[in-house]
Amino acid sequence: MPLTDSAVRTAKPREKLYRISDTLGLSLEITPTSSKLWRFRYRFAGKPKMISLGAYPAVTLAKARELRDVARSHVAAGIDPSHHKQAEKRAREAEAYTFERLANEWYDYSAPRWAEATAYKARLYLDNDIIPAIGKRPSSEISRPEVVELVRKVEARGTLNAAGKIRQWLNQIFRFGLAKGVVTTNPATDLDVVAAHVPRAKHHPHVPLAELPALLDLLSSASCDPSTKIAIRLLVLTGVRPGELRQAPWSEFDLEAAIWTIPAARMKARRPHIVPLPTQAVDLLRNLQEITGRYELAFAGKANPVRPLSENTVNKALRNLGYEGRQTGHGFRHLLSTELNNRGYNRDWIERQLAHGDDNEIRDTYNHAHYLDQRRQMMQAWANEIDALCTGGKVVGIRRTA
Q1: What's the CATH architecture for 5-81?
Q2: What does the alpha-carbon distance between residue 254 and residue 258 come to, in Å, rounded to a whole number?
């Protein structure tokens, strides 16, 4: 006889497990611990089999019969309900297994065997580039075009070394997923085939140091906006990229400590950067505060203070001074690098000041304040030397190779 709701509800546990039958293979299993489980018995390929359809009362009698009928239809179609149920379970797990979860498991497994710098760099690019792009997607659904698009965005920043690392890490993450059985394909293989070609080195023009005083003298009497004049002088004194300067909010500057901290999100290499400010730079920024201190941006646009100075403002000012083809805003970085290297300063200090990565293994990137004291002394000596050149005073060269 078919079961009734009352019979299911009032069924009591016994000393041993027992079952009460419904119809067409459905039964209710009652355990000594009072659990009530729906079971479906069937034959497939000539063998008797049984699957669970859930527990009562979460699964009612009516729902259990619906599930039984679905299972019977699978048997009639030549599909084993047990295999079908397992496939559905794996599909649900795969859908819930996001790329963020897979990437973090890969990182936790791999990081203990890496150098600290490598672990820092991998975590940085996971958090800033990889996970924001595809982290919420199910790992098993991520396609090759999605992965290629992610890498293309990194390449578009001009950070081709970072793009190469990200290609490598994506491949490793999906290989890890294959080994765990949470993905069935690796969409990150052979990405080097479509990698952007490394362009020829672009040399930004810059005047020799001997001509810098004349340039700065022309700048002081030029008719351009005072903010632009300050921007050019700060590029000379700090060696930062023009974009890093013109987009800087006042909140990044600590003038009392003479420190400018640029967060990773604004840096080309996606690594935080601390810039020691020589006293001359602090004075310039205090002057700038009188002009733009009420705005969020230090170099707030004149027409729209919510937006920074135009990308072309500095180079246009240099062209108007007569330096077209001879000096660009970015060129001051090359001048700084050339002169500091010629003075025998430690290469690592200079590269860190310019926020460059190391060609070998990006050494010590986990400590973004590394060499801060040494760089402060180096940049103060550089600023003093420029002052001396501009006033015609005696230049005292300070060489530090330690």
Answers
A1: 2-Layer Sandwich (3.30)
A2: 6
CATH number listed for the domain at residues 209-391: 1.10.443.10
Range list of H helices, 126-159: 131-134, 144-156
**Can 352 be counted among the known catalytic residues?**
no
Residue 365, pLDDT score: 46
Beta strands in 167-308 (DSSP E): 253-254, 259-262, 273-276
Active site residue 268: yes
Question: Which candidate in 123, 319, 356, 363 is catalytic?
Answer: 356
Domain range 99-194, its CATH number among 2.40.50.140, 2.40.50.100, 1.10.3720.10, 1.10.150.130:
1.10.150.130
For the beta sheet containing 36-44, the strands, ordered from the edge strand earlier in sequence to the opposite edge, are 18-21, 26-30, 36-44, 47-56
State both tokens at 67: 């599930």
Q: pLDDT of 343-390, one tens digit each?
A: 999 999 999 999 886 544 444 444 445 789 999 999 999 999 999 999
Between CA 230 and CA 212 the distance in angstroms is: 15
Catalytic residue among 41, 268, 316, 347: 268
